[in-house]
């Protein structure tokens, strides 16, 4: 799943390509992807792209339909678990047949360039919204603070975690608490902090909070830096190369050399290092038994 660093990479890439261009084409071929009807998707045609922004894991293309350049319409997209953006310097002219292509949405610009939003697999969760204000998107409206925003201090993190008797892994992934972190980077942050994914948020000490905050900022900052300047086609591989534990089950921990282990859930897994994070204890597979604490 694309998370905040990769989405920021997409935002930076699009900002360098499409600001100032006019939208010449919008084709919806994955009809379940379009979540809004007012304004209609055709309202984007002819609009000039004014800016690109990120809200958590959402990409926000802001445009102006009038000549005064005032932003009055947004195309907001969430790539979900298996979605991606495929850029074309010259947009293909082939007709996309609904239901027979991974392409859910195609957007073209007046210089001939454009992009496709694609989604692999049968579970379709990619979402696109045409709105007058990004806050009209429910997922954007409920977002917590961005962890790389200057206002997100160590004390702000402490306030968010205070009294939460839930596992820190789940807290980091909850978009209404902290925006932009998903399964992969929560694994990476907790490994960098040498913290069990099942530590209860409310029980973290002041020292734990210091370490977690530093690990969060450093991990995400490094990942955003790595994503900066890369075209969409290279972002996924860059993400994989930067992982210390996530997706590396059975490989050696780069810190201590112990085998990286997994815990499996219904539709995903987490990875961790027993030596670095759980005092050598193994966490039981959730599919088979209760967690070891």
UniProtKB/TrEMBL annotation:
It catalyses: Hydrolysis of DNA containing ring-opened 7-methylguanine residues, releasing 2,6-diamino-4-hydroxy-5-(N-methyl)formamidopyrimidine. InterPro entries: FPG_cat (IPR012319), FPG_N (IPR035937), H2TH_FPG (IPR015886), Ribosomal_uS13-like_H2TH (IPR010979), Znf_DNA_glyclase/AP_lyase (IPR000214), Znf_FPG/IleRS (IPR010663). It holds the Pfam family H2TH. Residues 2-126 form the Formamidopyrimidine-DNA glycosylase catalytic domain. Its cofactor is Zn(2+). Keywords: DNA damage, DNA repair, DNA-binding, Glycosidase, Hydrolase, Lyase, Metal-binding, Multifunctional enzyme, Zinc, Zinc-finger. Belongs to the FPG family. This is Fpg/Nei family DNA glycosylase.
């Amino acid at each position: 799943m694309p998370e905040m660093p990769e989405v920021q990479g997409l935002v930076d890439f699009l900002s360098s390509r499409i600001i100032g261009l006019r939208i010449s084409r919008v084709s919806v071929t994955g009809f379940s992807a379009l979540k809004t009807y007012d304004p209609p998707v055709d309202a984007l045609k002819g609009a000039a792209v004014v800016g690109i922004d990120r809200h958590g894991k959402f990409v926000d293309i802001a445009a102006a339909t009038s000549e005064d350049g005032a932003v009055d319409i947004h195309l907001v997209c969430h790539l979900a678990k298996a979605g991606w953006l495929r850029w074309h310097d010259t947009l293909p002219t082939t007709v996309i047949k609904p239901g027979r292509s991974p392409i859910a949405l195609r957007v073209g610009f007046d210089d001939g360039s454009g992009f496709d939003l694609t989604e692999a697999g049968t579970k379709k969760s990619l979402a696109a919204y045409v709105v007058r204000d990004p806050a009209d998107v429910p997922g954007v409206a409920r977002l917590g603070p961005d962890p790389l925003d200057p206002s997100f201090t160590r004390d702000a993190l402490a306030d968010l975690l205070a009294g939460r008797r839930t596992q820190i892994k789940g807290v980091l992934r909850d978009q209404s608490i902290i925006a932009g972190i998903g399964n992969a980077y929560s694994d990476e942050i907790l490994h960098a902090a040498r913290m069990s994914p099942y530590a209860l948020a409310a029980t973290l000490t002041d020292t734990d909070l210091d370490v977690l905050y530093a690990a969060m900022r450093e991990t995400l900052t490094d990942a955003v830096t790595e994503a900066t300047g890369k075209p969409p086609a290279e972002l996924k591989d860059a993400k994989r190369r930067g992982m210390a534990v996530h997706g590396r089950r059975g490989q050696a921990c780069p810190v201590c050399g112990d085998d990286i282990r997994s815990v499996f859930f219904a539709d995903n897994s987490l990875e961790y290092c027993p030596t670095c994070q759980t005092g050598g204890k193994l966490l039981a597979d959730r599919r088979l038994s209760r967690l070891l604490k």
